[in-house]
Amino acid sequence: xxxxxxxxxxxxxxxxxxxxxxxxxxxxxxxxxxxxxxxxxxxxxxxxxxxxxxxxxxxxxxxxxxxxxxxxxxxxxxxxxxxxxxxxxxxxxxxxxxxxxxxxxxxxxxxxxxxxxxxxxxxxxxxxxxxxxxxxxxxxxxxxxxxxxxxxxxxxxxxxxxxxxxxxxxxxxxxxxxxxxxxxxxxxxxxxxxxxxxxxxxxxxxxxxxxxxxxxxxxxxxxxxxxxxxxxxxxxxxxxxxxxxxxxxxxxxxxxxxxxxxxxxxxxxxxxxxxxxxxxxxxxxxxxxxxxxxxxxxxxxxxxxxxxxxxxxxxxxxxxxxxxxxxxxxxxxxxxxxxxxxxxxxxxxxxxxxxxxxxxxxxxxxxxxxxxxxxxxxxxxxxxxxxxxxx
Length: 391
Description:
Blueprint: H1 7-19, E1 28-29, H2 31-40, E2 45-52, E3 55-63, E4 78-80, H3 86-98, H4 108-111, H5 121-124, H6 128-132, H7 143-152, H8 159-170, H9 187-201, H10 205-217, E5 223-224, E6 238-242, E7 245-249, H11 262-265, E8 267-270, H12 271-282, H13 295-302, E9 306-308, E10 322-324, E11 329-331, E12 340-345, E13 351-357, E14 362-368, H14 373-388
Parallel strand pairs: 1-3
Antiparallel strand pairs: 2-3, 2-14, 4-8, 5-8, 6-7, 9-10, 10-11, 11-12, 12-13, 13-14
Helix pairs in contact: 3-9, 7-8, 8-9
């Protein structure tokens, strides 16, 4: 039977934090709240954290790194963020806009002048803002996209060279809808954004994220690709259901999306580091690390651009019905009195959600090391339970 003993301390702690923000070390364990989710939703592991006014007031991580094994997870374990990476790519864009190297309406043609003659005429005019909001008119990820990923393994060069090659190949294709008129969730679009940033900076997207986000935030557990080390189970393995059972994937070619699409979703980090990142966003970037970008530009990334309709084929980790901004979305949920900022991410083997209530300066992050609808249901239910505990 579930008890309510965690709810009262959470409520009291919220009040104490408001009255005395110096109690950063007074944190509540969420482990007893998380435990029932393991059996109810068949999860190998689950982790969560709650941030109030920049302070992590509660957190926890329970379960095992690998299904059918007794290798307990910890709050310092790395979990995969999937498409929650897009918000980091979007923040890099905001930084680059403030530096005057690009603007929100910079076009693909302007960013890749040497490739322009080979581009479809309409693709040339697609803007950075349209790519960020998935309204470019390009198709959602399709077989052509998958074929290019496979072909990329035969190309030479570093990741920035491969992304430039992919832009060259992809942008010859016509748009499927007029730019700005329809939402189509596109990992290719964010890969193009990554290549744009690489063109103007002279560095790979991975270098930019490390230097401009991981290091300033002090995200010591952050990295790219599979969260575990090859040959080791030193982090929660991603899982999928095979023959009715959860199968763990060791680090390797099938353990994550190709590095090429990093700007769309290959970052991993601990639940505590993820919470710090989310909490900074909940305050419009107005707490340390300060001055990365102007608060109004953080707010711009959170401001809806286009409405996301119900999609029959929507996969866990992709935007639910609501509104999409730039690397973030806005959704209505039954447990919040007004729309909240949200994004989810999954590489099919892991799932991560970030929720921001900017009016109250609250952030909630939830993660698990398995993909699929049951995992998505679990993380959504957990977010609601944690949010209500703060009322």
